[in-house]
Fold each of these.
Amino acid sequence: MLTQWIMGFILLIVKLGVCLLALLLGAAYLVLAERKLLARMQIRIGPNRAGPFGLLQPIADLIKMMTKEDLIPREADRVIFRYAPAVAAATAMLIFAVVPFGDHLVLWGNRIPLVITDLNVGLLAVLGLSSLGVYGVALGGWASHSKYSLLGAIRSVAQMISYELSLGLSLVPIVMMAGSFSLVDIVAAQTKYPFIFVQPISFIIFFISAMAEIKRIPFDMPEAENELIAGYHTEYSGLRFGLFFLGEYVTLVTLGALTAVFFLGGWHGPFLPGVIWLIIKIAAIAFCMIWVRGTLPRFRSDQLMDLGWKFLTPLALINIVITGAVLLILTVT
Amino acid sequence: MTILNLIFYVSAAVVLCATALAITRQNVVHAVCYLVISFMGTAVIFYILGAPLLAALEVIIYAGGIMVLFLFVIMMIKDQQSPMDDFSSIRIKKWLPAVILAGVSAIMAGVLVFADPGNRLRPPAVMGTPQEFGRMLFQDYWFPVEIASLLLLAALIGALYLGHRKDIS
């Protein structure tokens, strides 16, 4: 009994530690990868001074952010201003808790599932956490007491609420096909073929909505630098700005993982172990998002709302009806 | 007293305190923040009562949807009072809510981790899975569900009519 308790305790801590470390390192090196790739796309070289090929650049950036002064505007709502970046970063990291990153391990006769927690409402937990992430941005912008921050916050709230709807609706066909909200079951349902082959429309809607949720270029109205300086995090500096930044890139990693889980078969793949496949898929999704950023200009505000409400949401609804009809026909015959 | 009982009383206390704070705050944005905390506490109570689906929906719809819209409207229309007024009092008052809430969550997480590190403990016997819940809602109670959705549709059409911009000709 006691040994089992100790085993479980150690395992939990190890799993949490490894996941957190991988997530933070992944986010840090994604920043570097993005800067390098964007530079190549714009025929520049990119960061290449810190370490070989600029590989130590994330560490240099971290030291820079930690040693910068942490400014709080005089008129700001101090408590909310302090905690808003933490909300943004924490919700982003918590989503990874339900993502399965491999089949179970067998260690000394004990079966260890390779997921931190397998909730039976896992998918809803993901949506819930991503909708709570809005508070970090909204409250951070409001608490700064600056018009640029406030405008950025209002824009991002409007955008995130609109695209959350199509994000959630694009996942309904996946739930219908897997018959479960649990991410482990959804991955298990894709052992034969990944869902992208049967749900390409869902995949496209999810991908576009995900890009809008993390406010990346073409959807970066909330941080449009030529009108709003930096949007909701204009007044932030030092580590608090770093937390917003980290939250954004952690979300990019988790969204890559979620896309892999929902559409690309999760950790399934030939020859290589599951974790490697998941990392490859996350990197591929992240590369696509960086590519889009290097290619497209920013949307106008009305185009952004039109795309969300008048195109993606109705398309997702029609997709749900068609999926339901096909599933019904398949079960009847 | 089991762990589940303990969690219930702690979250119930959090819900009561947060709601009381929400209705007594001068600053509307602070009230919204406390109300969100109260919804999270309610979600925890739903979860330990064996309704994970309701818990998730509580967070998605109330905390993540409706309260965000509240915040949106407040940010759009309200001429902000100076937030400094609320915080000119003694230092401890600033930190107390955050410290209490962080402490309570830390204790709850600690109790859970120490009592059940292998995640083997399952919430009570009566656990409504999402499938069963959905079946019950749309087979046994389909009529009330339809009526409620009709009500929402009426509100939606009303909002659309009010928000419709009349052509200036």
Amino acid sequence: MDFDVINTTTKDELLTAIEDHQDTNFRIGAGYTDLIMNLRFQPTEGMTLINIAQMKDPSFISIEEQQDHIVLGTLVTASNIVNSPLIKLEFPVLHEAALSVASTQIRNSATVGGNICNASPSADMAGALVALKAVCCVLNSKGEERIEPLASFIVGVGKTSLDKNEVLKSISIPRNSGDQLKSGFEKVGTRNSMEISIVSLAYHFQLDESGKVVDAGVSCGAVAPTIPFAESACDFMVGKDLDGLSETDKEEFAENVLKYATPISDIRASEWYRKEVLFNISQAIFD
Amino acid sequence: MKKNLKIIGKSHKKLDGKERVSGKAVYGHDIELPNMLHGAILRTKYPCANLISIDTSRAEALGGVECVITAKDIEVSNISFKRDHPVLKNGTVNCNRDEIAAVAAVTKEIANKAIRLIDVKYEVKEGVYDPIEALKEDAPRINEFGKGEEKFGNKNIAETFHYDHGDMEEQKAKSHVIVKKTYELPRVTHACMATSNITAEYSEFDGRLTLWSSTQVPFLYQRDIAHALKMDPSKIRIIQPIIGGGFGSKLDMHPFEPICALLSMKSKKPVQILFSREEEFVLSPTRQPMIITLTTGADEKGKFTFREVDIIKDNGAYTSWGATTPFVMMQTFSSLYQIPACSFDSKAVYTNNPFAGSFRGYGNPQATFALETNIDLMAEELGMSKAEIRLKNANFKGEVTGQGLHFKTCGAIPALEKVLEKSNYDQRATERKEGRYLRGVGLGSMLHVGGGAKIYRSDGCGTTLKLDDYGYLTIITGSNEIGQGSETVLAMIAMEELGIDEDKIKVINTDTDVKPWDVGVHASRTSFVAGNSLLGAIKLIKEKLSKKASELLEIESDSWTYDNGVMLANEQEIKIDKVAREIHFGSPHELCSVTYFYEPPSSFQDKEFKGDVSGNYAFASQAIEVEVDTVTGNIAVLGVHVSQDVGRVLNPVGLQGQMEGGVATGVGYALTEEMIYEEGILKNPSFHGYKILTTTDMPPVHFYPIETYDEAGPYGSKGAGEAPLIPTAAAIANAVSDAIGVRFNSLPITPEKILRALSEKKEKELVS
Amino acid sequence: MKIVFKINGKQVSMEVKPSLLLIDLIRDVLKLKGTKPGCLEGECGACSVIVDGEAINSCMYLAINVNGKEVSTIEGLTGTENPLHKVQDKMLEHGAVQCGFCTSGIVMTTKAYSDKCLEEGITPTREEVKKSLEGNLCRCTGYAKIIDAAEAVYKK
């Protein structure tokens, strides 16, 4: 590897660096757990790395509790999420997804922004955030902000809607309105640890006092070029009493989730398995 | 034999453990010599091609590059077990590992860059990746040095073995059930935590070559390097730095090793080659993939009658020691359980796949998987309990098998009974299965050599002992420490016998210029062979010491005891260091030093592969409980009960570590590990794609040693290192079948295979 | 690029190439060879070191990002009073070491976790101990003794 680095510690330094490099090849580096591997296998001569790992600006690095939202700075690590009591309480799906990322060492470095911007269909934290209807706050080099739902921010394998002069600043998660939760992250892999999801299912159901679903968020990972939000599965669940779900209901929910799956076969699993297991786990979350 | 011992049988910390836990141990990766260059190797882009041209000019012109070599620059002999493997390839490449050129440069980066500047023109050919295709008449000849046509009547056969005993027709006639199945075993690899490495330094002044190498077999390796480089073996000095995992991977010498030496010879500087993890996956040898067709019979009472075995092994493009795994497999088929008739045929077939090598268990995990599955199937057909059929046929003390293995001690039945009891087998096997998670229990047993294996002209080991003027003992042993704990066991033996404190014992075992000959670490032999060798040397040094002590104390005794640095006899005592000094400084001035060579009492097998090949034999059984998740297809191993005839426990903590480590690799073999090759190219050369178990996957291992006190072994012990992984995959497969009622004839049993099987089963049930 | 940081308690200041990885800084520049290169892809944990109290894979970390931070490697655990740190003692005592190539990383990961548990007054369960070591591969031991040793560290 051979590249230049611009170290940025404030928002202004970052924006200037991005502005200055519009005509050149640059990458933004945060936690490096994916980027180092990319850089190792591609020519890096003449490339500039804009390093944001040492950013001090709180809006990039902290978990902020607001009235309607919890805001995660792009540099919040998987470990920060795992260790946040607030997230564990309000968004179990995100807690579990973050905890299922690789290993302690990786979680200590890997950032939520990186997990999103790497735009892998099997990204676990991104999957949970899609189910949580999270919204991205994007900053351009002129300092202007725009807002975009995460579900549309990721547009394909390794592709986001970010322009060359933009950077992901933070992610906002709407806070719960229901009285109770059924929220979790199902990760399918061969081993219990160090796996990239073969399939994942993130779900976050908010229930009223009686146990009826008032809001639903479901996404499925590693079964499509993006991480689809399973809208029709969510619609199907709203209004349902979770304790009173019939076997047919569970099946219908699973069928709805499966509509979003267009998986490929690769060395990790076949298309057949991915569909079969997605259907199975979708059904099984209610057992 | 069952005498009271102070040290042996009690857990002892690893002798060299402090260096290893403190990061001070020096592995091959940590060596830096003055003016050392870094080597890199260009490998073929295609697994099967003609080499049209190799242009190294741009690499040579790169600043910092000191030398570049290709086949035309070197004068070497073919290497490998069958000498069918050119060090650098010329004319054709036959598998994805093939080495075309090598570079030495002042930094790793420059060496790697230079490699990319070498321009090779290929004429790509269609390769043969299926051994059955390779056997066909119209298949191309894969290895030009292979002698298949002359020796075996087929150009692509690298090696064959035939064995038989007993009256096959008579036994077939007696059979009430006959089960014939074909099993396919995958390609897996050692995945040592340290990647392969070597540092070479050639001295042009005296023509001597020093190699810092992590070989497991330094003396065979010295000979192999000498053969490759056409040198006198004695001019080659092998120094073993601390080895970061072996498991059989370092039994063969590989091309990168003579290549590194050649780079040093040409550049006249030390050169180091370190593999990246990707290279390690692509390049290190693998366990033999094989297709085993096994026919077995039993009479109506469940007594085994015969076995017929036909094995096709994917040899890959060249022939390693791995081609000789039938030596071990024949033992399992001919002699695991009592078996009146057996015939065994195997062919190792050249393909354009990477060549296989040796791996802990040496063919036995494959053989045992096939055999133990067939046994379950026969029990099912007979309506017998799977425990009962095994007990009924189990090996016994005094048995001389059809192959001529003599079980002077035998813990087969106690081991089996122990795991049946501890796993609560009878109850578990009859439990009803329902719900999402289905549990099952399975059995597997094994037989393996426990006292070395005479497959080379000598299976011995030498020891030199040196007791210095201050009472410190240096054990110079031919054997090697590769992490398994042999140094510790040797120190324990010396402590036990000579009453010398651990902090006064040094073990020297890393330098072929210093240490006496030993065949190497393989066949679970080190504690057995090196232990016996040390005991022989201790006997000699005791003679020396007692003679002098008797002289000094003016007593006559032939029963000296050694305790806490003191020798005692006839209620008189003398410090051992004083005796050593008197030997040295008193007349007739000798050193308190002895040398001993131990050769096991085993015999070289005859042409029919019959004979008592090992000093003793190890037996083991495992009962494994699994839980199958019918939603995802994942299999959780809940518990592994291992009982093994180890003769006698020497170092409990070390032995337990061997058990747990072996089981971990066995579970990986059964469930998660597979090198995925497509058209000769490895698709998963990383720890990401090649899944060894993590901490959260590891089941509890309950170990129950069986002590049979075999008189051939040190204190009655037997070799133990390979056994724990041998029956694991078999027991897991049997447990999975117990859980879901489906048999798997191939490994690994992946979640996808489980879900497919469950889905097919459901369909069948719907149809019927 | 100039960086200033602490390594095993000692302040250092040096010029480094921007693309230098932390593992290469530690092994090749500072010559601290106890940190092991097992895979250089964040999968095996052999190169684990502690940066500001957190275990990280030094192969997935740019050297420039230790600027202003405190790095501990296996060499930093060996004290003047006790030749071995408690974590190392327990690993040795429980037979957690065979070839030892993974050991430095396991010791450092355990050290970071035990410091954290101590600070928070927690005694982790066996399952939590396993989880804390999920990123450290070992091919020799089957982990049982490593987990035993780590558990012994947490039990005062």
Amino acid sequence: MLNNVSQLPPSLTDVSNTNANLRAFLYGLSGVDQVGADARAAMLATRSIKTSAKLKAIDLAISMIDLTTLEGADTAGKVRALCAKARRPDANEASVPPVAAVCVYGDLANIAKSALIDTQIKVAAVATAFPSGRASLKVKLLDTQEAVANGADEIDMVIDRGAFLAGRYLDVFNEIVAIKNVCGSAHLKVILETGELKTYDNVKRASWLAMLAGADFIKTSTGKVQPAATLPVTLVMLHAIRDFDALTNMRIGMKPAGGIKTTKDAIKYLVLVNETLGEQWLTPKWFRLGASSLLNNLLMQRYRMQTGRYSGADYVTLD
Amino acid sequence: MNSPIEVNRTAKLFINGAFPRSESGRSFPVADANGKFIANVANATRKDARDAVVAAAAAQPKWAGASAYNRGQIVYRIAEILQGRKAQFMAELNDAGVKSAEKQVDQAINQIIWYAGWSDKLAMTVGSSNPVAGPFFNFSNPEPTGVIAIVISEKPPLLSLINQLCAAIVSGNTVVALAPQSAPLISVSFAEVLATSDLPAGVVNLLTCDSDEIAFWLASHLEVDGIDLSGVSDSELKTKLEFEAAINLKRVLRDFDDGYTAMQSWLEIKTVWHPQGL
């Protein structure tokens, strides 16, 4: 699905004509009730998911993972090992579904692509001077083109938080549009880096800005900044997706990333999606979990559910 | 002066250096030897045991990595703190119906110091350099087993606790211990001693609970590397737990006999062949 500016309904086509228009539109969005959002997220987090529902949620969460390695010390070997794990997360258990995607730096996308060529698993590459986003548009475009040329099916870009916080919304908007144009058939995930946006109002504005500019997915964080994904921030973004869908009939995906480490956390996010957007979003096509250590925790929980014994760190891979 | 407010003590679990209540909120009453109510004690569940294992596993590499000398100092410090709280332990032992309370506490303190001394001597008594037919320097060194689950014996209350715990931690293992239901307050007080004695968080985790119930979860837990079943009185259950422990080839100590043997139960011997003359 390609959602370009041209597909937007007439009421939204001219919001990005000038910075003043865009600013007026973003500031015209209703404010987020911070206390309310926190309380709602906390309330949904108390839902108890047990036994067979939990087992189902574990498998669903595994199939939604963007299995990630974004370290300076990444090597081709490490990416290959990660891909092997993505295909078959638990070597002892063939019934575990594969993950949704493997997420790496753009220069390693070709390694991941060739390791996953015969599977449905997508290759996601971070681009646009990830994680800071501090580079010229020219460099960011080249970075993206290279990742796409290396075989990335999905591009995870970061927005220019400096420009966003300084109020240069149109610059941020145009950058996303430009990146989207060079993505070709690759899906574009736009990382808002909510930990640097400070307020829920800003998160809501950035979500709308990214969706208007053509994002296929909006993503909370790079994982390099604290706080990363949190439940209330995810809730605010899910609300934005719901409202955008109602207004434009365009469906946008969601990816919380960073800090989701336990099965319990992952299930809380699934509950949040189900209660906010509904079941149709509960597929890897529309919802992803950016994570690395989460997968081991899910596998250990799965073992516990199926055997009645607790598993240990010696029985999952070292990543 | 007004009469002081009576402050009742809440006896809680000891997990990762903190004193949480049981996640379930459940507790059991404790009475003294005459049947008089003393306190409600937290009754740990399998989830508390699971959390304790997570804490013990996380603390283990660093504790094993500390120098033997340093571990010895810390174990010695436990004795120092216990000495300072001697009166409290004597009172609690009296409550539990122990006649020779003072002798027991003194013996416990001596015993801790005995273990502290062993920390930097185990390697040379248990380890060896081995003559081999080849150009190798061949030596065997003890390494800690890892996370040890301990079911503490009911009798003698304080001494069992100290023997079983110290035999494991002195060499760099970390512990999840199940206190006996008969005199749990002594274990809780000892946890308070541990919390104030430089022992890193998570090295010892103490749960007050129905040991027979919780031991199963520890015996079958893949993150646990050894289990001391001395406190399990039902021999049929003990055998069942041994079967569970076999799942990941845990070291099993069926009965605590003496400290030196117990210390060796929680050691793995690593033999290195080092080429000579290169």
Amino acid sequence: MEPIIEVKHLVKRFGDFSAVRDISFAVEKGEIFAFLGPNGAGKSTTIKMLTTLLRPTSGTITLAGHDPARDPEEVRRSFGIVFQDPSLDDELTARENMDFHGVLYGVPAKLRRTRIEELMKFVELWDRRDSLVKEFSGGMKRRLEIARGLLHHPKVIFLDEPTLGLDPQTRNHMWSYLQELNKKEGITVFFTTHYMEEAARIAQKIAIIDHGTIIASGSAADLTAQTGTASLEDAFLKLTGSAIREEESSATDRLREHLRVRNGGRR
Amino acid sequence: MHTIYIMWLRELKRYFRSKSRIIGSLGQPLLFMLALGYGLGSVFRAAGDGSYFQFLVPGIVGMSIIFTAIFSGIQIIWDRQFGFLKETLVAPVSRLTIMTGRTLGGATVASIQGIIVLAISMAFGFRPTDWWLAPLALVFMLLVALLFTALGTGIASVLEDMQGFQLIMNFLVMPLFFLSGALFPLSGLPPILAGLTLIDPLSYGIDSFRAILVGSSHFGLGVDFLVLALVTSAFLAIGSYLFSKIQI
């Protein structure tokens, strides 16, 4: 087995704050990998560096044989991503959002049509294909984003808290599809989540990050054995402590809050 | 090529779907055109400069173009806030093509807005001196629209959120409009004002509209074209550079 993601001594500093401090890890091809950590631990920053959105301060990354800092376009071709925050165009319809993505990733028109239909049927949004995304609920948007991330059949799919706000039915449905895709096509799955039982059930390998450093890694069984605990949740709490973390609000959060207030609670 | 087309198409779809934006952004130009056009008409005529309405319309067309164009460029901030920008930035296409598509789309929308204002002004009695030159006016409208969309894109690439938007409107867009000769003739101005109008690219845009639509020009159409083409190229280059540096 060869690693499809290899990270060595990765560091990201914002001014004098170190978000990621010298982390190294590898994800094998075809693996389902969970990246866990409390809020503000450095998960999203790491994902942004892996997906070419942020430049590392130092250290190296190889994703599908390419370096995101030096060869971003090659890297971008090989992954799909479902972001933590929504990233759909609200003023376009569900199908237009899918189509837009397909064009950006160079999926040929005929294939695009069949895959869009297949994926949208899978996430049960085919009936709503011509509705504007702004009419969708949070869960529907999430499902559409997952379908979109898979449209170009990436080698690696990043899912940043993909199941946040989804009901158990949708969550199960989504994971069984991803597991099937992982088995059939060998897609590597890299995800973050706050649901520990989800990580324990789905992931073959887990890494736990806190304060910008990886403090433990291995299978769920390894982690519980290492910490002498009964469940992954207990192991996680033992490793990261039980103090509640504060995350600073970003400009985005402030604007969203502002709009929420202005629109009288409607989003 | 597909990328540029789909980015362009997105801008157009968004524009045509938001009817309130179309109508809303017609209000201000119409108010200026009617209130000033009729209000100052008699003074202007008494000064021996002919019809103020004829003089004003090209200026108001320029106004609606600059407002719509800068606003289209600025929309990158919204896309950043609502996450859609990330979707385009992780796609395996160069930022230059994304920026080109967006800017062309924004410029097309701004030109359409200019055409609508021009059409409305005709309903109120505006008449171009030569109908055959109308297609040429379109070329210049698109050029001006490109210039200011690129400017908006450049600004939006360095702004984090919408807090700076009001600042841009008051300290950039408004001065650009008022100092462009949209409302008054450029000849016989006090030296400081004359100097300011000379460095305002919109002056050349509006001058070109006047040259084509009503046959009167301060700089001459050749100079207008040269200045507009140069400034547009510079803004496109700067805008693309700043856009390519965006980190999320």
